[in-house]
Structures are given as C-alpha cells and as structure tokens.
Amino acid sequence: MSGTGGSDVVASSNGWFVWALLSAMFAAFTAIFAKIGLEGIDSDYATLIRTFVIIAVLGGFVYFTGKWSNPLALPPRTWLFLTLSGLATGASWVCYFRALKIGEASKVAPVDKLSLVLVAIFAFAFLGERPSLREWFGIAMVGAGVIVLGFKR
Fold first, then answer.
1. Residue 57's closest CA among 78, 26, 17?
2. What is the pTM of this model?
3. Alpha helix positions (H), 42-151
4. Residue 46, exposed/middle/buried by CB under 10 A (0-12, 13-18, 19+)?
5. What DSSP state is assigned to residue 72?
C-alpha cells in the first residue's frame, strides 16, 4: 500500500482525481445538510458543533487505522503551516456557515468555489505551479460560472 493508503486506483497517478471528486460530493452534502441544520441556530455555534463532530470522526479514523504518531515529533515548519491552514479553514467555515444562514445554498456554494480560481493564482504565485493555457481557460470558465450563478442581474 502506498503512503496515501487505499487501492491501486486511488494510489495511481490519477488517484488525486478520485479523491477530489469525493471531496466535491461531500462538499455538496455539506452545503445541503448545513443549510437544513442551520434552522433556528446561530451559524457560529453550528460551526463549533460541526468541528467537534469532525474531530471525533477524524480522531477515531486516525487512531483505528494505525496512523497516529507523536505530534511533538513533527518539524516546526510543519506545525506552522498546518496551524495556518487550520486557521484559514476555521475562518472559511465561519464565513461559509454565515453565508448559508442568510443566503441560498445554490448561490453560496458556487461563490465559495471561487476558491478554485484563487488557489490557481496563489499556487502560481507562491508554489511555482504553472498551469497550461488550457488549464487557465478552464479556471477562467469556473470564475465566469461563479459570476453567472452567484450574482443576480
């Protein structure tokens, strides 16, 4: 088994695509379930409850799959960037749940996916990634789709 775990399909060079599709599916469920669950509850409190559920499920998953190791053995750089990522995730969730609380899920989710365009720009600027012209075109189409879906005339 590879370091990413899973079957040969998931560990193949295209395995990232399978995981990304699953992520998109679960993100879609997140929006629908959250919109329903936000009825009658503050969005920040709902985010806290969701976070506890994630901690419990992921903690159990890491423990029962034997992936637990001493977190104090991780390099400081890893801690720094995982902490920054966690802070960004928390801020994203708070904003997302507030948007879902007051907006329509079918409008909030597409605007949230503007992150795809921002990731491409940030990966270009900070990670040295160089999408092809065809890939930039696709990224621009996503950006245009966000504008069409997310904003009224």
1. 26
2. 0.78
3. 43-64, 76-102, 105-112, 115-122, 133-150
4. buried
5. G
